[in-house]
Amino acid sequence: MFYSLSRAFRTGALALLAAVSSATVNAHDLEIHGSNTVGATLAPRLVAGYLEQLGQGTVQAQGTGVENEQVLSVSGTDLRVLVAAHGSSTGFRALADGKAGIWASSRPARPAEAEQVSARADLTALENEHVIAIDGLAVLVHSSNPINTMSIETLARVFAGDVRNWSELGGPDRAIQLYARDEQSGTWDTFKSLVLGNQHTLAASALRYESNDQLSDDVSRDPGGIGFSGLASVRNSKLLAISEGNAPALKPSQLTVASEDYPLSRRLFMYTMGTHAPQLARDLVEFALGSDGQALVADSGFVSQNPRAVRPELDDSVPASFKRLTADYQRLTVNFRFSQGRTKLDNKARRDLLRVQQYMNDHGLSADDLMLIGFADAQSNELRAQMISELRALSVRKALHGIGLPQVAYTGYGQYMPVGGKGNQRNGRVEVWIKSR
């Protein structure tokens, strides 16, 4: 497999290649271990995109003889990058052991993992935790299945084996066959956390998979099947719209996933070990976070973090006052979110500030064209919720002021229009709206 990508040269890239080519190197100059969701397609595309910028030869990918592993190299040089996609947990172990320069993960680092390597690096710090893409955990059924929506609660009961026939959900009289990712998978960790929780256990009858694509292909051939995968692996299966609590059911889309409004949206990560990370790893991550890297994210079937302006469809559940408020605006595909239990912007939000600024510059817009709308989770009374939502919007306004976008309009919309059930952290958000032109 060969990649032919056209990208601008990076400063210092030629010097790096020359240094690598002239040195005595190990079998691989960089190893990326971890998530199959990241490693199957996305990580190789990002590596190829970065290496192509070096401009010194054709980038090619070859298998190692081990399933879900490949090596990318530049013809005429000794530069070699291994991508091993055996599950998020395997990637952490490789990073902790010093084998991997980058840990690719489809879930955030666990507190115990961060503690294990804390003497060497802080995995929760901005310089080590890198959100490289947004993914929607897709719930898949056969194309002939008449079921179109499902609540998270019902989905949990299905995968726990409490619901065993589609007729119990208004579908045909057909036994349900479960398809699930394996125990090493970050996709499985996400599903277990967001859907099964502490109240449900996956039924023993579920078929388990290391590969998202293979799982989706098997669901698409089974009229009784239901499974879950990363959004990039929907293929020929049918997507269900998912709801949580009183929030409306949503299908994963550019807006609902990029904004993380979709109940099963998730972040895809690359983790590095601070000053212990190889320079090649740091440069690759920088490329992945930039606009060129994010364009490759979109090409790979995931959702880019490059902001886009869209006009959302506001259904009858949206209050008339909100429709009036946003009548002359489009929504940017970015939400500002906060560290859990705090008003401090999280690592993704801190990078999104710069992405919004870049979007404004690229489109010739000023601070007058922006409006921030804050939201809060359900509170003990409406006044408290209103205050929290306004403080969240004000926090983002101050952060934007700090990077040269002063006096952005802002307001709060209290605890109305939740995107998740009560207590869900996603309800506490700040949406970004931009004047239509």
Search tags:
alpha/beta, D-Maltodextrin-Binding Protein, domain 2, 60s Ribosomal Protein L30, Chain: A, 3 domains, 20 strands, disordered N terminus
Give the topology:
Elements: E1 2-3, H1 13-22, E2 30-34, H2 36-53, E3 59-63, E4 69-74, E5 80-85, H3 88-96, E6 102-105, H4 111-116, E7 129-136, E8 138-141, E9 149-151, H5 152-159, E10 177-181, H6 186-196, E11 207-209, H7 212-220, E12 225-229, E13 238-239, E14 241-243, H8 254-258, E15 265-271, H9 279-289, H10 291-299, E16 309-310, H11 320-325, E17 329-336, H12 347-362, E18 370-374, H13 382-402, E19 409-412, E20 430-435
Parallel strand pairs: 2-5, 2-6, 9-14, 10-11, 10-12, 18-19
Antiparallel strand pairs: 1-3, 3-4, 4-5, 6-15, 7-15, 8-12, 8-13, 16-17, 17-20, 18-20
Helix pairs in contact: 2-9, 2-10
Description:
The chain is built from 13 helices and 20 strands. It is of the alpha/beta class. It has three domains: 2-131 and 269-299, Periplasmic binding protein-like II (D-Maltodextrin-Binding Protein, domain 2, 3-Layer(aba) Sandwich); 138-251, Periplasmic binding protein-like II (D-Maltodextrin-Binding Protein, domain 2), CATH 3.40.190; 307-435, 60s Ribosomal Protein L30, Chain: A (2-Layer Sandwich), CATH 3.30.1330.60. The protein has an eight-stranded mixed sheet. A five-stranded mixed sheet has the order 11-10-12-8-13. The longest helix has 21 residues, at 382-402. The protein starts with a strand and ends with a strand. The relative contact order is 0.12. Residues 1-15 and 17-25 have low confidence and may be disordered.
